[in-house]
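Sorry to interrupt, but I need a hand with the structure work. Can you supply me with one protein entry, sequence and fold together? No commentary is needed, just the two lines. Leave the record below and I will have a look.
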Amino acid sequence: MHFCRRRLGFSLIELLSTIAIILILAAILFPVGSHVRKAALDAKTKARLSQHILALEQYFQEYGYFPTFLSSESTALEGAPAQAYVASLSLQALGGEEHFQLSYNPCRRNFYQFAEDELKRDAGSVAAVVDAYGESPIHVMVDVSGAGVLRGVPSDVLEKEGNPGAGSLLGSILMYTQGSDGRTQVYCYQ
């Protein structure tokens, strides 16, 4: 009587081909995942900056002017401007800089609640207000004249908005970031 022995495992070729197929699929999917993550962070920053604009509009309605440290020139929210910005729009602790809150927000109104990942801190004090990537500071321009026109807008922002060479944009508030890759990303203006 002749018995046929059955093999109970995989051959080396079958195992290697299965691993190769898995690696090829992973190589295809990883770049897609990074693009999805980037799109999600861009959407998160855009949503937050829309809320910042609403908070600045509420501030303007409450006091009749924008926070005094903001001007018609681009202000990067780093250092003292970042602390003044947070103090103007919220009642959050700044890390030893509470005197800002009375000078920039005298009625002590909470216009916006900053998420902790929006604030870059240095020794407990607010060092910058950053985008969702946590690296680029937010830039703000406001129309202090009340004409509804932002003049002196940086050329790369104008190019992004499709108005190269115009020098100005219609609106009263402009917020944008300049990424570490050198690309300007305009998120919203009104």
Summary: The chain is about 40% helix and 20% strand. Residues 12-189 form one domain.
